[in-house]
Structures are given as structure tokens and as C-alpha cells.
Fold each of these.
Amino acid sequence: MAAKKELQVSAVENGTVIDHIPADKLFDVINVLGIQSLENTVTFGYNLVSSKLGKKAIIKIWDKFLKDDEVNKLALVAPTAKINIIKDFEVAEKKAVMVPKHVEGIAKCVNPKCITNNQKVRTKFDVVGSSPIVLKCHYCEKLTDQEHIVII
Amino acid sequence: MNKRSLVSITDYSKEEILEVLKIASEFEKNPNCNLLAGKVVASLFFEPSTRTRLSFETAISRMGGRIVGFSDASSSSTTKGESLKDTTKMVDNYCDLIVMRHPLEGAARFASEVASVPVINAGDGANQHPTQTMLDLYSIYKTQGTLENLNIFMVGDLKYGRTVHSLLQAMSHFNPTFHFISPKELEMPQAYKLFLDELHIPYYEHTELDDVINDADILYMTRVQRERFADPLEYEKVKNVYILKNSMLAGTKDTMRILHPLPRVNEIDEDVDDNKKAYYFQQALNGVYTRQAIIFKALDLKW
């Protein structure tokens, strides 16, 4: 058996590993997935060396498997992320992060004059570009691009 | 949203645009009727817009309808902190149709989701003003006899001018060729150029208002607004660049017509007004017929 690479964050027995998160998006991912309020064991790696991203982050969550809408949220803030489902310390399944067609109540509209930024109106977007992500507001019709996406 | 609202020009298909223009021409022949007898239309103007409001109210009056509402937000309960949702819900109980002008973008879309009666957007901030677009289309249709295969020239503030953006979207159904004449600072936004690229609609950009307009079927003039410029010096530099004068029209097509959403400041010299190619005042009158047609469709009226 070939020697395993040394892990920078310890392994999970059962749960989810979200890898290849751009380092500066780690806290956005934590926010959109509500990880701060989980009871589960969670470990983070931050500013890890990555050949693809330069600096990456990784999140390992014990005994949790992401639902589809959680994967959608993740796609908005970190579309490069890879999800590995771990069973018995082995990768049981790899999930691609899919950018959804519509997004509701997750992101803020970039337009300060939009009704959603001035009154209690839940935001709604059509996703009109996926790489990079571009959101079109259902109300004011303005575009919000990837670097301006702010998660509510 | 209820299906009969008109919030954005993209709510209408090509067929619906043509249907409304046809109805508008019927109202032009015979503007007075009683189709709105017994109906109440709420005219909710959260910001003043005298021109648009009078046009709507004329349209409603000529159809025999009654109007309730307000002409600026200070005379509505918005000043007491009422939300748009609550105002809309309340008015929705009273009326058969809501006409709404609001300074916030997306307000009319939201109202159309909250209300059970149709909502007609009379302008939501810098976003959409579909009845203006429809009257522009009607003016083009009437003066050219068709909407197909026309050379449309847009002049002035193409960056912030919502009328040109909506007109561009609406005309995209009809195989146009666009020419954009503007200073670099006010050029057509990238998003609209990409939209045209995707549809393989040709467009040409110019910075000079010169004899390039000789190819035009429609010359759509817009006002360069001082408040669009962060730097007043920039405004001073460009404000007088695009002034249309009568002498510049000598080589233009006989059938060419000049449109302008009004109010104008100085971008069309008054010496153009008497030229038969000047169409902006008739264009405003067309707004009444077009709004009658839009109301007719929104309420699913029958002759």
C-alpha cells in the first residue's frame, strides 16, 4: 500500500468533507450552512496549501450529510467546492456542487434601490450565469455578480 | 403574480405586443367609450410624475372609469411608515386595477404578487416603465407602418436611460439594426450589448452625432441628466455634445421620425419642432391610446 499523504485536518469516520473552498470564502460557507449552530463535531482547515486555489479551506462535519438545498447555498458562495460523503473513513460518494436555477432568501440584491433592500421582501433571483455566478433579481432585474454576492 | 399585470416589457410576448398595438389603434379611432363603467382604478403615485399620471387618468376617464388614489407619497400612509405590502393589500380590496409609480425598483413586481387585481407599472425607479415602451412602439409602428427590419438610432444617455433599455428589449423581437450614439461615459451597458449578441442583432456604436443618422428610420433622442454625474465637470463636458438641429436633418430619410420620451431640455433645438420629422408631441398623445389598450388587456375587456 502506498504511503498516504499526511492529513492537514484529521479524518472523519462518518460525515461530510467540503474540500476546495477558496480560503476567503470559508466564513461565508460557515454562514450559509449555519455551521455555527450545529451540535455536531466540526473541524476546519484554513489557509491550507492548494495547488489549484493557492490557499484553500476545508470543513469536516461529523455525522452530517448535506441536503440538496444546502448544496445549492454552498454553490453560490463556493462553486469550486467538492463534497465528499465519508462512511467508515472512506469516501463513499463524491457530489459535485451544482449551481441552482433559482435562489430564494439566501443572497442580498446588490442594488441599494431594490425593494428587497428597503422593505421586508424575501429576495428571489434567477441564476443567469454559472461560471462565474451571476444572479438576476426577480424584482429590480439588476444583476449581482459573484464577487458582490452577500449572503443574508 | 397574476397573469394580467404588466410590470416589465418582457412580460409581453411578441404576439401580445402586436395585439396591444392593434387595440391602441382602435382607441385612436374612437377614444371615448364606457368599457370601464362601474370600475374603479387605483392610481398610486408614490412619487410625483405629472405627465404619466395625467396620461393614465385621461385614458381611464375616456373609458368611463373612476379613479381613486394619490399623486405623491406625502398624501399616503407611507409617511406613517406603512409598508408597500400593506398599502397594496388595502387598496386591492377597493379597486379593479392598480396603476403604480414607485421610487423603489421592483416595487411593482412585488405589488403584483401581493395584489389579486392586475397591477400596471407606471415606473419603478430606474428599472421599468413598460407603458412608455409600448407608446414608443406604437409611435414607431404608426409612423413606419411596421416594426420589422428598422434602423433604430438611440442618442444621448444610453447608460442610465431606462426608456432606451426597455425599447431595445422590446424591439429585439422585430429584427432591428441598432445604432448607439453617446459619449463614452454614457454608452450602452455591456449587459444589453451581450443580450443583442446572443440574439445576433447587429449594433453599431458612435460618439458623433453627424450624417450617420441619414440611415435612420427612427431617431430616439434622450436627455443627458445632470444628476447622473458624480462630477459636475463631466456633465458640463458632455451636456452640449448631442444637440439635434434642423440643419442636420437635410440628408435624412423622408420617412424618418424623431422620438423623445420628454421632457426635453436642450437636446432637440426648437427649430426642429416645425419639421414634419419631429414626432415627440404626437408620441405623447399616443400614450393615452396605448394605456387604454393596456388597461383593456389587463382587465380582459371585450368590445
Note: The radius of gyration of chain B is 19 Å.
Amino acid sequence: MTFWVSQSLNSLALGGLLFMLASGFSLIFGLMRVANLAHGALFMLGAYLGLAAVKAGLGFWAAALTSALLVGLLGGVMERTLLRRLAGRTLPQVLLTLGIAFIIADACLMLWGGDPMRLPAPPELSGAVRIGDAVFPRYRVFVIVASAAIALALWLLMERTRAGAMIRAAVDDVGMAQAIGISSSTLFTAVFCLGTALAGLGGVIGGPILSVYPSLDQDMLPLALLVVILGGAGSLAGAFVGAYAIGFIYTFGQVLVPDLAYVILFLPMVAVLSVAPQGLFGRRLG
Amino acid sequence: MPDALTLSDLHVYHGDICAVRGLDMSCAEGAVTALLGRNGAGKTTTLSAIAGLLGTRQGHVELFGKALGGRKPEAICKLGVGLVPQGRRIFPSLTVQEHLAIAFRRPRHAAERVYDVAAMETLFPRLKERRRQLAGSMSGGEQQMLAIARALVTNPRVLLLDEPAEGLAQQIVAEVAEAISELKRAGLSILLVEHNLPLALRLADTCVILSSGEVVWRGAPHILANDSDLMAQHLGVH
């Protein structure tokens, strides 16, 4: 029983982190049809920046905020100066974002070295809580709650504000959204900043659990891609359900049948894609 | 009357295919101009080009004397062009209310009337009933009304209507036609593309017939209505 409870909580924590990573990826893809392969690298950069900020004497929360802002800013610059030139050209976009991912990864290696580092959890969240018979790190409970709160805030932004309605309209039909006066240029940059800032924030929040190491990006990006493929691109609900589904499948797969963890991870994706190629919550995007 | 919209020597291409070649026409202020012709004559292409959704390679589009060429669709909308596109193109994941909220823009010019949400709910009472419904789940007629309302709340100086009666039941066509007449009485300048010829002839003040991207005839609707050769040749009506 204890095993199931504590692994379920681990799954929820991983699912929450994956949501922070995949929701931004999915929003960007839905709006601009850009598969931002630098998203995993931006997650890792967020973790390293957070670590650097903590080492420089900032508190954990200030470090998380700073890191999210810096990564979001970098995302905005990427969109304005590079991706914009390749609008509508899928292959060059993929190669560009992949190239950026390599540059970021190498820059991190150069700046922070190749040894794994631990990002300390904030002191007020150290220690453990008892849930039934299970003893569970307090910080993981925080991750579960915080990521759910971020999901709720994103949902409110998308479903209850005028800006969110504009984003959804542009995901549905960007040409038509422009024709009723919505500036797609501003919207693209804003969503790119938001999506990449979330990845950066996810990196810092995930740091104390995952630790910070050079191939963190390569470990996280495939999971985010799986979430988006499973849930459907451009859908926040899809990213939410997909993230927690992958969180559970990956966590339990690794503890129960470690040899088959990746098989178990990709099987449901194959099943979903053969039934609903656009993902569980996705629409066919033109 | 001054011209609301002027197209001169307009050329529009789909890739390498020239769909509109050297189009010259104008729409008088406060009038309904019907753009007619067979499928593929270049009508929708013309409207898309005016709205900025298709690039033009040659020629000019002017709105009340202001050049629209080379501007983005959002800028053209803000200058006063409202588009009701072919196939309606409503946003399936938005409610009726959200469509109108994101499209609404106060008129830039001192206008006699402001088209806001309340005005749209008077014009199309069905939209009021459907306020919170997702547009993707509405009937074709309701979607068409929404597409018209969405264009109107941008408070355009010229409304481009691309086949507003396409695929709608008779009774809905009548409702939509009544709404267009009302807009016309209110003095809105309208450029209408419509395959339903009786409807187009009833609404129009002037007709322009396109064939293979060129103007082949222009004149008053009653003259066209009595010229069966002309209708047979260019509109496929016998």
C-alpha cells in the first residue's frame, strides 16, 4: 500500500513538472506550428540559472522567478530574431531549434561543467510529511500543488481572459484572427515568452528532484514530446492529461519493470495514435 | 457618391497562377456592389487580396483614398475592412461571446452608429440565445450570422461578404438577407460575392461580372436580370 501511495505521489510530481514543460511546448506548437526542440534545453538552462542564482545568494523563490524571466526573455529573442524569419517552413525551423538546443547545452557544459549538481530545496520545504503510512518529502508535495496551481492559472488565462480567447482564435485559424484585427506578431512573441518562461520555471522547480546535469535536456524533451503527442498539440487540457499520464506510466514503468520502461512509455502512444492520430484532445491543425 | 473602395490594375497570384488579372473596379459609399461570376472567376481571391490575406503583385487597393497594399491583414482590418470569408471560418473553440469580444473595436472615424455586442444581438437574436455556446457546435446558419457579426463589431467602413448564403436553408437565407438589407439601409458600404443570383440581384445596387480574373461586364442589376444571354454566358444561368 505504502509503495503504491508513494509512487503515485512521485508520479504526480513528475507529471506536474512535465506539464510545465509540455504546456508551453504545446501552446507554441498549436499557435505557430513550430516544434520548439530547444524546449528541453531551455528547461535545463532554467535549472542551471536557478542554481547559479541560489549560489549567488538569492533565495530559492527569487532564483526561480529570475530564471523564469531570463529564459522567457531568451525565448522572446529567439522568436523575434530567428524563428520569425522561417515562418511556415517546418524543416528549417526544426533544424534551427535543434541547433539552438545544442548551443544552449554546450554553453551550459562550458559554464557549469559536467558534474551533476544538486539544487537545494528551499529550507521551509525540507523534511518530510506522513501521508498514511508513507513518508514523503515535503518538497515533492509542494511540486504537486504548485504545478496544479500553475495549470489552473494557465487554464484561467486561456479560458477566461480576452488574451486567452485571442490565442485560442489564432490556434484555430491564424489568418482569420488577423483579419479581425488581432496582431499575430505580438501574440506569437507573447506566447513564446510565456511558453519558454514556463520551461525555465519548470527547470528550477524540478531541480531539487531531478538534480541538474548536462543531459537533463535530452532526458526531458522526449517526455515532453510524448505528452504532446498523447494529449494533442495546441490543447492545454491535452497537455494536462498527457503530462500526468506520462508521469504515472514512466514512474511505475521504471519501478515495476525497469527493463521495459521505455517500451511501456511508448506503447500507449502507439495505441492512441492508431486510434486518434491527432492525440486525445487535439484537433487536426492545418 | 465618393468611392469607398477602389481597385486598380489588381493582379493576384496563387503561386504562379494568375487568378486576378488587371482588375479595375470601385464600390460606391453606402452601396452594395455585387461581384459575380462562375466558380474560379477570381471573386474570393479578390476579397482575400483586399483583406490582405493574399499578397498582390501589381496594382492598388484603396479604402477611401488610403492605400492598403502591402499592409498586414490586422492593419487592413483596423483601417476599416471587415471580412466575412467564404466557408465562414468561425473559431470552433470560442463561444459566441468570445468571438465578439476579441473582434470588437470602436470606430476610428466619427461614425453614426457603433456596432457592438448589443447591436449584434438585436440584428441576430439567435446569437443572443447562443451567447455561451461554442461556435463549433452551432448550425451553419448560426455560424454564418456569427461570421457577419464578428466582422461588423470591428466597425468596418467596408464590409466584404463572401457567399453569405452558401449552404444555408431557405429560411436562414431569408434571415441573413434581411440583415444585409438592414446594414445597407444603415449606409454601410458592402462588396458582396454571392452565387444565389436572385438574392444578389435583389441586394445589389451595382453588379460586376468577373471571368478568368477580368471584368467582363458591369452595370445595374435590373439590366443584368433582363439579359439572359449575358447570364448564360458568364454566370451559367439558363
Note: Residues 3-87+156-235 of chain B form a domain with the Rossmann fold fold (CATH 3.40.50.300).
